[in-house]
């Protein structure tokens, strides 16, 4: 999996230098500083005092069934992306060692230095805030690098979990490609027995002429996902008697809390059609100074459709009214149980950077980016507007986030007082990040599918700004030693906070501002020609997002309760690594620890008294303590020429040790496991080159038991809203038909594990692709 593995292996124990060289060049090292070779330079700072892993485009093509850019992270140690189907645009959250799949703000995702992480909010409570994965497709990627932990002063506190950097290609000559992919998923759960999948196509064209280079990339994805939510009735809420329509088709089971319930239908099954256009233009002012402009346009049209499992005595589907199951009557089915949604999104990304790459005494960069929700609407039927009439129109809501977005500006420099082989390498810079959230939900009395917005149902808005200065010195004070010291200063402010639930109920919040310092330090030692030891420690301050502060919303089937007085989340993270690099194998062992004060969490519960509405409340958790051990290895030619094996295993004990808040009763979260952090997780990937034309890969991913709730009451992971352990086996075979034409076939979840993370993950899925280069 790991590119230039010798270089990356050393990098886990030492800082390293990134330079723009051919990927065929061999990595070099001196006093623990490693030159990572890549056609395009990443935006990561030149000296990185942290564990790092990476993967190249060639390895993605050979080893991974990748339909979305986040698939490149499948087999990285300790990482998981909560991707539920191809093109998952609103729930694909990245988790890491001590950060769960509900905490998207505890990681940072970039593409060519442009921020893709969405820090307008956290996770998927209320609104959805995953990284904007759709702005990058697998065919664009040259390489992906992941830095673990908040050990670089160049990044904000959101780097506490991991920093992911996608580096995309720029051509050296006229080139192009066309790719066609297909996915097929038979799905069998409760009373759903259907097949889902879709088609994906992409094309690219680029060239270089003199000092100019350009690349145009197009991508189209038409995807059907499996049902994700389910309408339920708790057995104990039924009233014995004959009231209501007698129905059959309900599926009995146990909830995530092991409470008997009935599954009466599906709530959301997405059909999403996405188009992406990406244009990059670069101009070389000199051999060492390049300007690059990036334009990305992403459009998405999706429909969420429900299905009732219930039938009356005549065999007709029942979608509304009081229902009677087995002699018990239950609350009426509403539009909240069986919601219909239509979404239309059109987002635009701009990025501009000018940077020098001399690797001499001084290098610099000026970078700016803008992400704009040009159009962002979601239409949904009202709770009172039930099927089948709701399919044709009737009352509903229109949520409009148009105008929301963020912009970033960074000035960076690298100073090498004695040149590239000097004792010191100093990184420094200034950054400003602005975020604006504006979301208006309006009632529609006539036709929810077409009518204009009516009266205000809810509105949220606000801005945050983070202004930062940082400096970091990597000091080679002895031939085998290197120390890294850094400091980040951050000034954060939140302004224009507004929440309202009608035209006359405006609630404005007072402006806030805070200042924080985050020191970083690392010490590395080369203890032998092939062995390294490194210790790193860093503080990270994760500031509250606009949505967490002001984003109270109430819709047909969900409610989000904000907190304008949230405290920032403050973490101290440490890691101690030992790295061994042999002739054909490398391995790393890392002990890590994290102590987080005032962790920010949004906890979701289902309220039967509110028509099974999902209620989410954001809160601070006083203290969370994590202790863990991570191992990673790679072996080339393991007993057989052409066979490469990589793997990892992570143990994490992440516990809530102090918390004044609670879920049900005081103290019920103390000593409980941090949500969405399994104690054990592992990966194993074996890639075999049969000959010059054929390669095949088999991979295993494992994740142990975990919980979604702060008090760990969701003891049954194999149910809707539960989080289950899983073991999945993925396989892939690739045929290089000619020098320009290739084909691949793969199966994800070959063993058909039926596992959950609130929603059901995909079951056994088949993929096929055909690609032509010219």
TrEMBL record:
Topology relative to the membrane: Multi-pass membrane protein
Residue intervals of the TonB-dependent receptor-like beta-barrel domain: 337-750
Main location group: membrane
Keyword Transcription: no
Any one biological process term the GO annotation gives: siderophore transmembrane transport
Domain of life: Bacteria
Classification via InterPro entries: Beta-barrel_TonB, Beta-barrel_TonB_sf, Plug_dom, Plug_dom_sf, TonB-dep_rcpt-like
Family matches, as Gene3D superfamilies: TonB-dependent receptor, beta-barrel domain, TonB-dependent receptor, plug domain
Xref: SUPFAM superfamilies: Porins (SSF56935)
Protein family according to the UniProt entry: Belongs to the TonB-dependent receptor family.
Protein name (record): TonB-dependent receptor
């Amino acid at each position: 999996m790991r590119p230039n593995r010798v270089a990356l292996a050393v990098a886990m124990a030492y800082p390293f230098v990134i330079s723009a060289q051919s990927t065929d060049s061999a990595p070099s090292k001196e006093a623990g500083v490693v030159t990572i070779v890549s056609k395009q330079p990443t935006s990561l700072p030149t000296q990185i005092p942290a564990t790092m892993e990476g993967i190249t485009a060639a390895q993605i093509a050979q080893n991974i069934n990748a339909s979305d850019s986040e698939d490149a992270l499948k087999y990285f140690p300790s990482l998981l992306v909560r991707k539920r189907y191809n093109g998952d645009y609103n729930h694909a959250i990245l988790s890491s060692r001590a950060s769960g799949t509900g905490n998207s703000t505890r990681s940072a995702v970039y593409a060519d230095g442009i921020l893709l992480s969405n820090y307008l909010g956290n996770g998927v409570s209320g609104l959805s805030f995953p990284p904007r994965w759709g702005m990058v497709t697998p065919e664009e990627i040259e390489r992906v690098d992941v830095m673990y932990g908040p050990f670089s002063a160049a990044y904000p506190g959101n780097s506490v979990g991991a920093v992911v950097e996608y580096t995309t290609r720029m051509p050296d000559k006229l080139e192009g490609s066309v790719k066609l992919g297909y996915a097929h998923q038979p799905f069998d759960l409760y009373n759903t027995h259907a097949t889902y999948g879709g088609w994906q196509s992409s094309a690219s064209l680029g060239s270089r002429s003199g000092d100019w280079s350009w690349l145009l990339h197009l991508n189209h994805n038409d995807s059907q996902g499996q049902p994700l939510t389910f309408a339920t009735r708790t057995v104990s809420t039924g009233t014995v008697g004959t009231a209501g329509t007698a129905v059959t088709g309900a599926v009995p089971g146990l909830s995530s809390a092991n409470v008997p319930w009935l599954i009466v239908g599906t709530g959301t099954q997405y059909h999403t059609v996405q188009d992406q256009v990406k244009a990059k233009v670069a101009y070389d002012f000199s051999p060492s100074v390049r300007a690059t402009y990036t334009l990305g346009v992403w459009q998405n049209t999706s429909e969420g459709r429900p299905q009732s499992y219930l039938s009356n005595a005549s065999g007709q589907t029942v979608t509304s009214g009081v229902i009677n199951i087995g002699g018990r009557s239950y609350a009426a089915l509403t539009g909240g149980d069986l919601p219909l949604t239509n979404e239309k999104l059109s987002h635009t990304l701009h990025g501009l950077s000018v940077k020098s790459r001399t690797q001499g005494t001084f290098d610099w960069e000026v970078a700016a980016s803008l992400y704009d929700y040009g159009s962002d609407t979601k239409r949904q039927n009202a709770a009172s507007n039930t099927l089948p009439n709701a399919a044709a129109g009737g009352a509903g809501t229109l949520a409009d986030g148009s105008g929301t977005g963020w912009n970033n500006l960074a000035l960076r420099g690298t100073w090498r007082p004695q040149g590239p082989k000097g004792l010191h390498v100093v990184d420094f810079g200034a950054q400003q990040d602005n975020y604006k959230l504006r979301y208006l939900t309006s009632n529609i009395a006539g036709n929810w599918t077409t009518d204009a917005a009516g009266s205000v149902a809810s509105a949220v808005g606000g801005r945050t700004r983070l202004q930062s200065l940082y400096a970091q010195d990597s000091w080679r004070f002895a031939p085998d030693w290197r120390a890294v010291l850094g400091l980040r200063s951050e000034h954060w402010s939140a302004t224009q906070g507004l929440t309202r639930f009608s035209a006359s109920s405006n609630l404005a919040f007072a402006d806030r501002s805070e200042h924080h310092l985050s020191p970083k330090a690392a010490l590395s030692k080369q203890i032998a020609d092939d062995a390294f030891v490194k210790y790193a420690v860093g503080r990270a301050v994760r500031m509250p997002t606009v949505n967490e502060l002001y984003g109270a919303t109430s819709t047909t089937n969900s409610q989000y309760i904000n907190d304008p007085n949230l405290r920032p989340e403050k973490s101290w993270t440490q890691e101690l690594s030992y790295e061994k690099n042999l002739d054909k194998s490398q391995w790393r062992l890392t002990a890590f620890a994290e102590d987080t004060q005032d962790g920010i969490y949004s906890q979701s519960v289902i309220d039967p008294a509110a028509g099974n509405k999902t209620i989410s409340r954001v809160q601070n958790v006083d203290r969370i303590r994590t202790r863990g051990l991570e191992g990673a290895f790679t072996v080339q030619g393991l007993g057989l020429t052409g066979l490469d094996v990589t793997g990892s295993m992570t143990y994490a004990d992440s516990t809530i040790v102090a918390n004044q808040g609670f879920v049900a009763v005081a103290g019920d979260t103390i000593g409980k496991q941090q949500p969405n952090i399994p104690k054990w997780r592992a990966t194993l990937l074996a890639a075999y080159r049969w000959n010059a034309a054929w390669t095949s890969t088999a991979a295993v991913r494992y994740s142990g038991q975990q919980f979604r709730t702060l008090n760990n009451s969701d003891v049954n992971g194999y149910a809707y809203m539960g989080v289950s352990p899983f073991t999945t086996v993925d396989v892939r075979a690739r045929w290089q038909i000619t020098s320009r034409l290739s084909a691949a076939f793969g199966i994800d979840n070959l063993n058909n594990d039926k596992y959950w993370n609130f929603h059901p993950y995909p079951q056994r899925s088949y993929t096929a692709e055909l690609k032509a280069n010219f």
